[in-house]
Amino acid sequence: MTDTWLIVGLGNPGAEYKGNRHNVGQMVLDELAGRMGGKFKTHKARAQVLEGRLGIGGPRVVLSKPMSYMNVSGGPVSGLANFYGIDPEHVVAVHDEIDIPFNTIKLKCGGGEGGHNGLRDMSKALATKEYLRVRVGVGRPPGRMDTADYVLRDFGTAERKDLPFLLDGAADAVEMLVREGLTAAQQKFHPARSDVHE
Fold first, then answer.
1. How many Å apart are CA 61 and CA 40, to the nearest integer?
2. Listed residue (177, 185, 156) closest to 91, CA to CA
3. Which residues belong to the annotated binding site for tRNA?
4. Which domains does the chain have, with CATH numbers?
5. Quick one: CA torsion of 166, 168, 173, 179, rounded to 10 degrees?
6. How far, in Å, CA of 80 to CA of 47, rounded?
7. Active site includes 90?
8. Residues 22, 90, 95, 116: which is the catalytic one?
């Protein structure tokens, strides 16, 4: 199998979803594409892809934005993994996470999907949960707001001021993950406190 990494930004296709919290994974991939100086192209696996290297002499990566809806992200992801010959341990899902506060980034390998339909479909299609995740915190819905309504809304005015810094940090986390490994990236991006809820 190849040393190439498949970096997947989860989200929904279409202009009406572009600014949603649920699409923060795709926003991070746009940031990475900007750093690589490339443009996404349409792939037959129902995804937009950009092939290249992360940084000078960096690892070879395929940035991917599935063009299916979030809850059926698995087909495009497994199609790309098969096309490029990439094992699940070299697959990185970048996604929104309501279980951690806005402006927080966490990384992990495997584990549950926490009710995230995009991850659930990925796990099913890849036949494993053992792939890497870069979890971009969007915080919990206020009051009694439904979770689906919350993640399918755009970031609030105050959040939008900090959003460029969050996307920049998440892109840094992806780069460090594929360059230096999960443990090094966790040590840099996770808060040092032991009482932080995972």
1. 13
2. 177
3. 17, 69, 71, 117
4. 5-189 (3.40.50.1470)
5. 180
6. 8
7. no
8. 22
pTM (two decimals): 0.94
- Integer distance in angstroms from the first to the last C-alpha of the chain? 32
What average pLDDT values come out for the chain (198 residues) when binned by 10 residues? 89 96 98 96 96 89 97 97 96 96 96 91 97 97 94 96 97 96 95 55
Residue type, 134: V
Among residues 163, 173, 178, 148, the alpha carbon closest in space to that of 54 is found at 178
User: What does each C-alpha distance from 80 to 32, 51, 103 come to in angstroms?
Assistant: 18, 12, 30
Task: Please report, for residues 22, 94, 167, the alpha-carbon distance to residue 197 in angstroms, rounded to integers and kept in the order given.
Answer: 21, 19, 22
Residue 161 to residue 156: CA distance in whole angstroms: 9
Distance (Å, rounded) from C-alpha 132 to C-alpha 19? 24
Q: Check if the beta carbon of residue 63 is closer than 8 Å to that of residue 40.
A: yes
